[in-house]
Amino acid sequence: MEICTIMTRLGYGEEMRRWRVEKCREFDRLVETRSSHYIEITAGSKAEGLTFIFESDWDLLLVFKGVLCVEAGINIHTIPNDIHVFRMDTRVYPGHCRLLQERRAHTRFKQILNSLCDNGYGAVLLSSRLFLDECSASFTNPDVADLERAGPSIPGTFKGKLVFHVDRVPALRCHCPSILQRWAARTRHWPSPVIVQKVVSLGAYLTPVGFKGSDYKHMEWRMCFNTGETELVNNLNSTQTQVYVMLKMIVKDVLKPCKKEVTSYVIKNIVLWQAENNPQHNFYKRSFLYWLHDGLRDLKTAIVTQQLSYYMIPERNLMAASGLQEKQQSKWVADITDMMDEGPRVILRLQRIRQAVIASPEPMLWFSKIRMELEMLELEAFIRTAQCSDEPDVILQEINRRQDEILMEVKQRMRIDGCAVNHLKDIFFRILM
Questions:
Q1: Which of 222, 204, 202, 203 has the alpha carbon at shortest distance from 212?
Q2: Tens of pLDDT along 55-109?
Q3: DSSP 251
Q4: What is the DSSP-derived secondary structure letter of residue 421?
Q5: What secondary structure does DSSP assign to 47-74, as a single string?
């Protein structure tokens, strides 16, 4: 229970989480009409409300309008004529497909037109690699410095008041009711039937990346369910989300993967399987360490066996082609075994948790209040910036004034405590990362 209290004070409590989720949704609604080409959707940990504003990259799914990919058996005559339609050929690695042009619309997307290829048998395929190349060349923004590409994403650094990273992933909308219905039909403890149907209604997307081990990965696309998965995570209870956060901390701070051999996405799937396979009433504050231990055991099994079923499409193995070397695998198995043997003391391996445990209650409460107010103000500033034109905004000015006031208070306290005092901008960034 004390660990759950510490997690809440660090900014991973239910109230703060809900605030972040709502502000991300509000931001998405504001930017939805900005582009005539695609819809921006916040994805990943930001949409789940489980990271500080500068703690990790801001993941954006850029979904092209006027394009639809459908699985076999879908009658395309029910789809409006102004929609460019591709048929999914799923006879590749599970969770992936190739795209055959089924019906060409009067499209204005050069990214699509320049990525079409003849397969030599009279059919036209959409190349994922060419599409990503085209998107990378066209997604230019004077406020974003592009970085080296990674997988299906086009990463960049946003040069605003503070520097932070964005990960833009171009995507196409995908209509695959049979895949979603197979997921929905599973026997489960969680989520509720209402949430299951909502996830089904949110549909799927295709991102331009093939299976790593495929000779034809440049022509393959990966199915993903970003909005549905966000809905699922947002319906986990506070104990489940805090287990999720701490498992991610362990991977980042203890295992320290260099080449994404184990990712936060692997942890998310472990937690989702955990939730589905166990009664929801078993997840409560006093059971936190039990489920953390259970999650570590599942992670260890995934590393040993190189097998973890994707929550939405179990036939897809998330550990396939992970690139995990034998030496690294042995070390991680030994590390996780040690952590499991440590019991509750495993949390002391995490610097952020350890500092919170040894901190005096009064300074910890003060810092918690300061940190949460600063982040809430910054999220509000994001919204105001999106809402307002270039003209001065009174509310935005007041937000900045209050932030400066808080930072001066922090600076003064640092001096009293004998700490080295940095520039206010550095203090602000460190508090919110």
A1: 222
A2: 878 899 999 999 999 999 899 988 998 899 999 999 999 999 999 999 988 767 8
A3: I
A4: P
A5: HHT-S-TTTS-EEEEEEEEEEEEE-TT-
The pLDDT confidence band at residue 247, using thresholds 50, 70 and 90, is very high
User: Smallest Cα–Cα separation from 67: which of 76, 75, 58?
Assistant: 76
pLDDT tens per residue across span 343-385: 888 888 888 888 888 877 788 888 889 888 888 988 888 888 7
Query: How far is it, in rounded angstroms, from Cα 276 to Cα 218?
Result: 34
Helices then strands, each counted (H, E), the chain: 16, 11
Those residues whose C-beta lies under 8 Å from the C-beta of residue 335, and which sit 6 or more positions away, are 254, 255
CB under 8 Å to 349, separation ≥6 — which residues? 250, 253, 254, 339, 342
Residues 6+ apart with CB under 8 A from 408: 424
Judge whether residue 3 has pLDDT over 80: yes
For residues 176 and 124, give the distance between their C-alpha atoms in angstroms, rounded to a whole number: 21
**Beta pairing, strands 163-175 & 58-70:** parallel
Per-residue tokens: 308:
């973890």
| Band (131; pLDDT cuts 50, 70, 90) | very high
Architecture of domain 35-235: 2-Layer Sandwich (3.30)
Fold of 236-358: Poly(a)-polymerase, middle domain (1.10.1410)
CB-based contact 134:115 (threshold 8 Å): yes
CA–CA distance, 290 with 278 (Å, rounded to integer):
13
Kindly tell me if the per-residue pLDDT of 35 is higher than 70.
no
Name the residue with tokens 């209402």: 194
CA distance 298 to 292: 10
CA–CA dist 203, 173 (Å, integer): 8
